[in-house]
User: Which sequence fits this backbone?
């Protein structure tokens, strides 16, 4: 399965601004069953892009615009190949909890155990955990994470406009409404209190023909939990499904603060308006560069050169 992804971001300013510095995390990752086949970023006004890979393996692009501008448009285009996602067992043995130890966890997994800016314990979260009977995990870690995912799905309505990208989880907990980012943060915070390393995933989800709660024309967010016997496994509390071949991963981090698609500043006194459009569709396999090539001028057939024994024989014939 191949997906074509188009992600357009537009900033409009009420007055000219300058010295815009922007950082982007839009490039899909290439690991596991997911392979990035092509990717490009176009900006208007045009800018020189620079790139690096952060400590979590995310591709980061950055640029600056020194001249004045009243609008900035960023368009990212990608083609991703999604292979077969391994099937997930119904549950694991009870000994899985004991495998969360110094022998099985690396530094990057320990980093996903502590509280972060948006995923942390609070009085409102403790109340929710008590009401939903989530104070202690049940059974093995996989079973517990599935129950947690279902509890969040059942307890919250999906509604945009209730929270903002920088809203703390208490806002969604009080309103019992929110979007995928809020549900992912709540799931992260609870999983970490159980001792399960969990990380935030930003990316895209293909929706057509499926009854999903999340929006089809926006980026998506979900959670990955580390299970020693299985590795990182994706959980989508917004839609109450495991992340599979419809989920395209772009970046991972402790929470949204680590992986916003765009982050930047500018100089000037102006209000800004942000517009976003996202499209993801199945597509054909991309054509390889070699398939574009056509022979315009065939190579001339070389005249056969006699081998060494043949040349010696010819010389002998001439001397007779």
Assistant:
């Amino acid at each position: 399965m191949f997906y074509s992804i188009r992600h357009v971001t537009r900033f409009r300013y009420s007055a000219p601004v300058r010295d815009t510095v922007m950082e982007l995390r839009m490039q899909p990752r290439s690991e596991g069953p997911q392979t990035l086949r092509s990717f490009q970023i176009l900006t208007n006004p045009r800018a020189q892009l620079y790139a690096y890979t952060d400590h979590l393996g995310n591709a980061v692009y950055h640029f600056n615009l020194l001249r004045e501008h009243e609008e900035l448009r960023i368009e990212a285009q990608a083609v991703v190949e999604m292979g077969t996602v391994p099937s997930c067992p119904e549950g694991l043995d009870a000994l899985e909890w004991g495998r969360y130890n110094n022998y099985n966890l690396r530094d990057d997994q320990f980093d996903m155990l502590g509280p972060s800016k948006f995923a942390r314990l609070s009085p409102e979260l403790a109340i929710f955990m008590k009401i939903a009977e989530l104070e202690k995990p049940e059974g093995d870690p996989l079973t517990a994470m599935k129950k947690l995912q279902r509890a969040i799905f059942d307890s919250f309505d999906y509604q945009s406009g209730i929270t903002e990208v920088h809203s703390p989880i208490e806002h969604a907990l009080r309103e019992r409404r929110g979007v995928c980012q809020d549900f992912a943060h709540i799931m992260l915070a609870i999983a970490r209190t159980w001792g399960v390393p969990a990380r935030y995933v930003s990316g895209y989800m293909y929706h057509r023909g499926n009854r999903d709660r999340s929006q089809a024309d926006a980026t998506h967010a979900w959670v990955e939990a580390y299970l020693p016997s299985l590795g990182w496994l994706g959980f989508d509390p917004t839609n109450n499904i495991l992340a599979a071949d419809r989920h395209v991963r772009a970046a991972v981090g402790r929470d949204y603060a680590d992986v916003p698609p765009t982050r930047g500043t500018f100089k000037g006194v102006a209000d800004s308006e942000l517009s976003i459009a996202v499209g993801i569709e199945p597509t054909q396999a991309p054509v390889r560069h070699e398939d574009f090539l056509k022979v315009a001028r065939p190579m001339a057939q070389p005249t056969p050169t006699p081998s060494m024994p043949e040349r010696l024989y010819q010389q002998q014939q001439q001397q007779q």
Remarks:
- The chain has a mean pLDDT of 91.
- The first strand starts at residue 2 and ends at 24.
